[in-house]
Amino acid sequence: MSLENKIVLVTGGASGIGRATVDRLAADGAHVVVADTQVDLAGEVVSEVKKAGGSAEVCQLDVAKSGAADTAVNAIVAEHGRLDGAFNNAGIVGPTVKLLDIDPEEWARVLAVNLTGIFSCVQAEIRQMTQQSSGGSIVNTASICGLVALSHAAAYNSAKHGVVGLTKSAAIEYGPKKIRVNAVCPGFIDTPMLAKGAGASEGMLEQVTGTLPIRRIADASEVADVVAWLLSEQSSYITGIAMPIDGGWTAQ
Ligand SMILES: NC(=O)c1ccc[n+]([C@@H]2O[C@H](COP(=O)([O-])OP(=O)(O)OC[C@H]3O[C@@H](n4cnc5c(N)ncnc54)[C@H](O)[C@@H]3O)[C@@H](O)[C@H]2O)c1
Question: What is the set of active-site residues?
Fold first, then answer.
């Protein structure tokens, strides 16, 4: 799969799924802009990419900060002249309590990062991509929680369902401008976030694994493979989808 010389932005690129995707995109020939709030960690990712012969740079970005996505995209375009692809993936876990116990401030924070953050990135990216005759490809990270609801996760479920709606809206409005927009819906992926969520309670991960048709948690590289494909020309007729990467969990 070639992404040779493509300029691609990855948010949340310092850890987990984002980090695995940075590695994969760089191995496929892209120049990857690793955007994250954790700049030191993003710097380590970039150093590793360069050591492996790839091309990457760090971008300090808080997707929840108003105007920050525009600034990041403008800087990329000033340096490289265009933006070919983006993986809008930065996200946080939500409160694991019942609906009535959600603190409105926590609700607002989860929505600000996981939904409005992706909206701001998509807007900035499409604003640029509509200026390019080559268009572009955008992938947003939703979740199985964008397709079904997990209990005690109303804020996260709501944000991720919103990401699926946003993805479809962007796809139908900007398909005519050669811009494809898709979402990935990961299930249970081995990352620091999973360790903080399901992995935090004793025996929970083993219990989850037993409910997965594939009977194992995924490696982050298994999401990265799908994202790389969606960003590449090999998926040229795919837009507006929300693809589960969940070992068959939502098929049940
Ligand atoms: N791990 C899973 O099982 C799983 C399942 C479904 C969906 N997801 C989604 O995948 C995405 C990546 O999660 P992960 O598991 O790799 O988690 P992770 O915690 O390992 O990585 C998330 C990255 O996002 C960054 N980030 C957080 N807030 C940010 C902000 N405001 N601006 C910029 N960067 C920010 C973090 O610093 C971190 O580097 C998230 O959107 C998450 O909701 C994960």
Answer: 156
The answer to whether residue 204 is domain-embedded is no
Q: Judge if the beta carbon of residue 54 lies within 6 A of ligand 1.
A: no
Instruction: Compute, in angstroms, the gap from residue 34 CA to the centroid of ligand 1.
Output: 13
Output the pLDDT for position 185: 99
User: Where residue 25 sits, what CATH number does that domain have?
Assistant: 3.40.50.720
For residue 207, being part of any structural domain is answered with no
pLDDT digits over 166-182, tens only? 999 999 999 999 999 99
Q: Which atom of ligand 1 is nearest to the CA of 114?
A: 41
With the most atoms of ligand 1 within 8 angstroms of its CB, the residue from 163, 188, 193 to mutate is 193
Give the side-chain half-sphere CA count within 13 A for 149: 12
**What CA–CA distance (Å, rounded) separates 247 from 2?**
26
Q: Tell whether the model's pLDDT for residue 250 goes beyond 90.
A: yes
Gap between the Cα atoms of 188 and 11, Å rounded: 20
Domain count, the chain: 1
With a 6 Å cutoff on the Cβ, whether 90 touches ligand 1 is: yes
- pLDDT (tens digit, 9 = 90+) per residue, 2-50? 899 999 999 999 999 999 999 999 999 999 999 999 999 999 999 999 9
Question: Do 140 and 163 meet the contact criterion of CB atoms below 8 Å apart?
Answer: yes
77 lies in which domain range?
7-191+219-244
